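FAQ: What does a ligand-bound record look like?

Like this one, built around adenosine-5'-triphosphate:
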Amino acid sequence: MDNTSRNFIENIIDEDLKEGTYEGICTRFPPEPNGFLHIGHAKSILLNYGLAKEYGGKFNMRFDDTNPTKEKEEFARSIIEDIDWLGAKYDKIYYASDYFDQMYEAAVKLIKKGKAYVSELSPDEIRQYRGTLTEPGKEDPYSNRSIEENLMLFEKMKSGQVEDGKMVLRARIDMSSANINMRDPIIYRVAHIAHHRTGDKWCIYPMYDFAHPMEDSIEGVTHSICTLEFEDHRPLYDWVVKETEVEHPPKQIEFAKLYLKDIVTGKRYIKKLVEDGIVDGWDDPRIVSLSGLRRRGFTADAIKRFIELSGVSKSNSVSDYAMLEYCQREDLRMGAPRYMAVKDPIKVIIDNYPEGKIEYFDVINNPENEALGTRKVPFSREIYIDREDFMEVPPKKYFRMFPGNEVRLMQTYFVKCESFIKDDEGRVVEIHCTYDPASRGGNSPDGRKVKGTIHWVNASTAIKALARDYENIIDEEKGVKDEEGNLNLNPNSLVKYENCMIEPAFEGAKAYDRFQFVRHGFYCVDAKESTDDKYVFNRIVSLKSSYKLPKQ
Ligand code: ATP
Ligand code: MG
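The answer part, i.e. the structure of the complex:
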């Protein structure tokens, strides 16, 4: 962060430290364990963790598990895995549910101060009494109970004598406030549901706006960073902090969410894609959940770089997925070996090459990074090339293989296409070539030029694999949603190459190993479906890009 100008949150922290408002800083990431994390959450995680690191402060990982109706252990596990993967370090995991006692005590304190009361209005009535943006709210008829009565009724709520929805505890603030959040918000409700950590101990649970500032205060969080939609809740946050008289008041700061153009990010829509069976689970490589991105082959470093480039701001904007792809290509450019893979193979027979002979070529694994060394690539009479590198009748400017044309087989020889064979359906199944032994190494023996260079894989040593090419699940021409609010799906978001032929260098590839398939793109070994018998590769990004980094 040193070279870029400081963002507005850093400015606030600088000021707070200078003025002595805080001696050091503590931030937190507070997910609700009710779904999987996505790339937007990565922004929040890296921002909070990055600030703690930058200022030598503390970063807390905290589950905001105050709503037992929607929470699941499975989500909690996956969230931790994602945070660890991103490299955000915390010393322990905090649980909001560990503070239920303190929250309860704080609520009692509010009642004793005359700042909270038990209401018996129904949820509908509470909504009606609350008013609207243009109309003030009406006094709750229960708001003038005595402190003793409130304490007694709150105790009744807590001890299980009240049915769900029959009573709530409300903060007494201001029913005529211009800010609806301040119109006597509910701070506790009755819910006879077991909690996955506290079991049956509680049948009252705190509401988010009361619980969150309490959690922050209890942990000594100094800067409670959240997204813009909570801006209107800040007065309530401050009210809770003030009226519960916490020792070290935290400060809420809002920033703009990360949005990606034409990409489904919202929890709600991802959930729908999963439920409708359009994708295969939350970690489908087409989804920008962190588990999906990881499975697809994205690296934590690329995501970090992307988040860094997207900046921290107070106004909403939309980022480009192409920028994420750019960061990923840059991250893999040096480190990934470049091997040959033929996704849609056609057999090529080199008629004048000796039968039974096999020779090996020393090939550099990554011309941009000598440290990756070289490998031996076998070559013999029968090889595979990609279907798209052959045309029976070539259009203009097609320099790859076609009858009568000479091309360079990458690193080996010049070959000339002499004839080809089709099956009954008219599909080309075999190509016959002759090679020029004098062009060994792919060098012209007499100065004659070939315009096309294509990759290939030796047939007798090829390994058959499955390659999966992914595109946006959304049809970008049409945009995310149609007029009825349905997602515009891209029918080509997944293309499978079942007969992908890969060279022997891939042997032993393990989950998350990443390679460049020469001329095709960067691929990653699928962690879920790849086996020793059949490798499965996911395309992370193609090689092509028209993307340019925005000027800083
Ligand atoms: P929902 O999808 O229902 O909005 P959520 O994403 O807010 O849920 P939480 O578990 O409450 O889920 O989020 C944890 C934190 O991540 C919050 O502080 C939230 O503000 C932040 N966050 C969520 N989405 C984004 C985003 N797109 N960009 C940046 N931060 C985000
Ligand atoms: Mg939320």
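Follow-up question: can I read anything off the structure? Yes, for example: The CA atoms of residues 118 and 153 lie 7 Å apart.
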